[in-house]
Amino acid sequence: MPVPAAPLAEAATHCPYCALQCGMMLRATPESAAKEGTGKDDGPEPAGGRSPGPVTVLAREFPTNRGRMCQKGWTSAELLTAADRLTTPLMRPRRDAPLEPVSWERALDRITEGIIRLQREHGPDAVGVFGGGGLTNEKAYALGKFARVALRSSAIDYNGRFCMSSAAAAGIRSFGLDRGLPFPLEDIAHAGAVIMVGSNAAETMPPFMQYLTRQRENGGALVVVDPRLTATARAAALHLQITPGTDLALANGLAYIALTEGYANRDFLAARTTGLAELRAVLASYWPERVERITGVPVADQYAAVDLLAQAERAMVLSARGAEQHSKGTDTVTALINLALVLGLPGTPGSGYGCLTGQGNGQGGREHGQKADQLPGYRKIIDPVAREHIGRIWGVDPTTIPGPGRSAYEMLDALGTPQGPRALLILGSNIAVSAPRAGRITSRLAALDLLVVADFVLSETAAMADIVLPTAQWAEEEGTMTNLEGRVLRRERLRPPPAGVRTDLEIIAALAARLGHAERFPGEPRAVFDELRRASAGGIADYAGISYERITASDGVFWPCPDETHPGTPRMFLDRFATPDGRARLVPVEHRPVAEDIDPEYPYYLTTGRVLAHYQSGAQTRRIGPLVDAAPEPFVEIHPDLAERLGIAEGAPVRVTSRRGTCEVPARLTDTLRFDTVFLPFHWAGAGRANSLTNDALDPTSRMPEFKVCAVAVEPIDDPDDNPDDDRHATGSVPTATVGAAEPVRAMLTGRSQPSGRHQG
Ligand SMILES: Nc1nc2c(c(=O)[nH]1)N[C@H]1C(S)=C(S)[C@@H](COP(=O)(O)OP(=O)(O)OC[C@H]3O[C@@H](n4cnc5c(=O)[nH]c(N)nc54)[C@H](O)[C@@H]3O)O[C@H]1N2
Ligand SMILES: Nc1nc2c(c(=O)[nH]1)N[C@H]1C(S)=C(S)[C@@H](COP(=O)(O)OP(=O)(O)OC[C@H]3O[C@@H](n4cnc5c(=O)[nH]c(N)nc54)[C@H](O)[C@@H]3O)O[C@H]1N2
Ligand SMILES: [Mo]
Asked: Which residue intervals make up region (Disordered) (predicted)?
């Protein structure tokens, strides 16, 4: 292992959380440098061992955040010194025994023995890898290569499948490639109209809101489509309070209006698209009254939204998880792209369609090969030319590179079965909390012969592992991230990890070395990045011209950037789309119902999402004092009228039940959501785990699960001890309070013509 460089007094880096990648400055307090660990120790942390001191976080003037950050960013450094931070590998002496500290040698030897034995008995695919969109580009690249070269396994996928995979699949189908935002954030401030479909950026990317504020100050209008009146929707001129799971019909309906009202951009359609006739034929059945019946969005509001978009000189259609995390997410985004194309927005300067990618490296994480069907440079693993090129870079015979593996949920669902992996290595995901139908997934994890998790804390998933490896945090290692704009940026290291802790790259390198591939896996991020550049050269996501030096000296570089003299590509598609003929595809798509609709037994829609103070599975933010104070516990949002009907008071314990499990949380009564819909944030484990309920129905193209809608029953908990088991099935007991409630709710809906659009200003 190379000797780590000395700690810095100050490091220019980026927030460890979302895809906005706010620029931040980290400053070591004087005593922390003195108490520094070297990161080189190869044994358990001695009792009372060294612990590095606190770090101060300052916001930087970076083009994404322009000096601002949210509460998560300001408090992010607290996790560096969290009381329960892992500083030694942990291992179970026996399957049923508790985790105990062990040396790195023993932990790595035990993992290697397990891998070799399971692969000898069951073949290479017996060992699987699960990565994350929070990992740096270097780690995502190394992990994909580790699976294909060191393990020769096809079983690798990652949590990005649960995130923006539907938008990615739709972007590839319509435009020929997927870059979340094909334009810089700055363009949003100058758009005359923006429609945001299923994004609550006010809570999920607070510093992003300054672009919408500036957009409004510039005279622009915002339309928000969300079943809830969120903080984001409050900033809108028009809020469309849609029935969950019906965005596809709405998008088709808005495109219908654009075509029939003469708003279609005929020159653009003729010059830059194909498929208009076929699209027109499908859109013909999406007349406004029918769309109102499906979506609940009043006809007048549909017209108002199209008027705003069509009359603006520059306009944007943006989507996020609310529209995408559905079993028809790919087609829903396709319908939104069709709307944008009919209006002539994509590839037009200042206008366009974009997906607001979520995780810190959600964009880069989907480009470098940790995806089941992909090789670095956003290449297809089935493409013989790509296999040839990558085989050369990796120094292996291309025929030895495995073919495509299963998608994230399908791989997890098969764990421990004769068809699936018997060992799993997880870096950067806490699936025991965040996977859909999580009761099923934890039972699959428990069925494994070997579960290895690398994390900085004992997440709920790590707590199930046979071996846990303590890994470095963002301030303790270098690396690059690619933000939601496709901007490749640099993380600078403030100080080495605490004694006993290794970086993910060092862990991958050490395992690869034990599997006989010592030379092929450098543990140094720069060496990995240089290889990544060469591997990506000539691919879709081409990083060949991007270097650490360039992105340190600048505000990052946008891919594609094929050589060092190339300026990078902030705006894409200006001349042509990335399809063979250069034209965007209008792909006709039909609305279809949600995978699990409400019925008398499960009469309400459940939707899930986020709150400002917590990040994802909460593994990181549930350990940070000010964030726990801001949002101490899980809750379910219920409309006061529905709560009254069910006999539920504010703060009272509520049981939410789906065909897959139950969740018990206090009620939060609010009239900001539809009264046929309840909302659960998914940041908590245990009885408050939202994913005990969610549906594992998958999108046929992206394999995205239907996180955003399933059918549930809701009842007050009279006897708190009466707690039915998780993952029960439809045959289980039916909560009496809600039997047959679907009809009264429908009557309420029609009786009060809920929901209605909301006009302001
Ligand atoms: N505070 C915080 N910020 C985060 C994260 C976090 O966990 N916490 N995670 C990051 C990541 S990885 C991601 S992916 C992003 C996610 O960012 P967002 O997509 O903004 O987050 P969500 O809360 O999942 O969903 C957004 C909205 O979709 C709405 N919605 C639910 N169902 C539907 C529907 O059928 N149609 C429509 N139109 N809307 C619907 C919900 O009511 C919710 O307000 O946030 C990133 N930023
Ligand atoms: N019901 C419902 N479920 C959802 C969603 C939803 O909207 N509703 N959203 C989905 C989405 S969009 C996403 S992105 C997923 C996210 O869900 P997860 O994949 O569980 O994401 P995190 O909670 O960020 O988990 C990251 C874990 O890895 C650790 N970690 C962070 N960085 C690193 C690193 O660099 N190296 C290593 N080794 N470990 C690291 C953290 O401590 C944490 O334990 O959840 C999905 N689940
Ligand atoms: Mo995400």
From this structure: 33-55, 716-761
